[in-house]
Amino acid sequence: MKKALLVLALTVMGGCAYPDPTGYRVFGVEKLGEMKQNPERYAGELCAFGGLVTDAEERQDQTAFRMLVQDPRPSEVGDSAGGSLLFVVYPSGKTTVAEDHYVKVLGYIREPSVGKNLFGDRVSSLTLDAIAVYDAFTRYAFRRSRDEELFRKWQTGQPLTSD
After folding, report:
1. Pairing between strand 127-135 and 84-90?
2. Residue 115 domain-assigned?
3. Is 90 exceeded by the pLDDT of residue 2?
């Protein structure tokens, strides 16, 4: 009898938990590489990426973190090595994002900062101004209220459009 009650309780609790969002579509490392090659072209574009948080800083007014973006589809060989870093800024300091959490983000590419490195080569930064963040570790989604409809489209797997 106790086992039956335990199974029933776990089933009910499991139904109340946040569902794993299979609909959130994200771009992979290949798309991020294209964007890094020509960041000016992608400024203001809506996009979504998923990846592992390598470091995070939460302030009162924002959460900023670096995310290691990898291919969302595992390769045939099963090699998950590699990836590219993306800097993400979310305009709220109230998230569960932390180092080693896997997150998915939706946002707009910021106008890049362009300069030269020590060797005289042209370099630019790529930053995503997030309007929504899904923390897969805690299964919590964070979003700006003014972008609720766009977030719902992303959540259900609709194509990335701002229309």
Report:
1. parallel
2. yes
3. no
